[in-house]
Each structure stands twice: as structure tokens, then as C-alpha cells.
Amino acid sequence: MAKSIQVLLAIVAWYGYEIWQMDIKTAFLNDCVDKNEYDPCVYKKISGSSVAYLMLYVDDILLIRNDVKMLEDTKAWLSTQYSMKNMGEAFYILDIKI
């Protein structure tokens, strides 16, 4: 498992953050991601007391936040930008149970 995934899962466990998963339905059709890229891209944003991580792994997105309202807003915005499938709370990543 990629080190960045391990680190993010440790942060989620330590701070009790929410972790939700979305799937980009047309990632390969729109060439949004490099099909040969298997290292996840991780983005972090801090605004006041709100912390957010977004991890893109091939065509899956993990959204990690300490603020459920902002998490829902982020999911809604992503859905307006791309054809997305909301997978709900993440229970597995790379066939590993969280």
C-alpha cells in the first residue's frame, strides 16, 4: 500500500475524521488521470479549524474532513464538475478494510 494512504488512514484514525469515497465515472474517457499512475495524488487544505484532504487514486477519490457539512459541500461541487458516483462512507481502499 502506498505510504501516503497509510499516513492518511492514520490521520483519520487519530483525529476521528470522516472519510468518504467517490468514483469518477468517466475518468479514463475524459483523460482526467493517467492510467499508468498508481501513486495517489493528495491535496490538503486548512481553513481556520477546518481541515480537508482529497486523495485521487486512479479513478477513486477519498474525501477526508473534520467538518461533515463541508464534506457534503465538496461532494456536491465535485458532482457538478464531473460525472461522479457517491460511494458513501469508505470501508475499503485498495481491497483493504478500513
Commentary on this structure:
Residues 41-97 form the Reverse transcriptase Ty1/copia-type domain. This protein is of the alpha+beta class. It has one domain. The chain has helices at residues 3-15, 68-81, and strands at 18-24, 41-47, 50-57, 60-65, 84-89, 92-93, 96-97. Strands 2-3-4-1-5 form a five-stranded antiparallel beta sheet, sandwiched between helices. Strands 6-7 form a two-stranded antiparallel sheet. A hairpin with a 2-residue loop joins strand 3 (50-57) and strand 4 (60-65). Mean pLDDT is 77; it is low at 29-33.
Query: Which structural category do the helix and sheet elements fall into?
Result: alpha+beta
Report the β-strand fraction as a percent range.
35-45%
Mean pLDDT figure:
77
Sequence stretches where pLDDT stays below 50 over 5 or more residues:
29-33
How is the biggest beta sheet arranged?
5 strands, antiparallel
Counting H and I runs of at least 4 residues, what is the number of helices?
A: 2
Distance between the termini: 13 Å
Order of helices and strands: HEEEEHEEE
Principal-axes geometry comes out as globular
Q: Give the helix proportion (percent range).
A: 25-40%
How many structural domains in the coordinates? 1
CA radius of gyration: 13 Å
Number of strands: 7
As laid out across the biggest beta sheet, the strand order is 2-3-4-1-5
InterPro entries: RVT_2
Pfam families: RVT_2
Protein name: Reverse transcriptase Ty1/copia-type domain-containing protein
Domain Reverse transcriptase Ty1/copia-type: 41-97
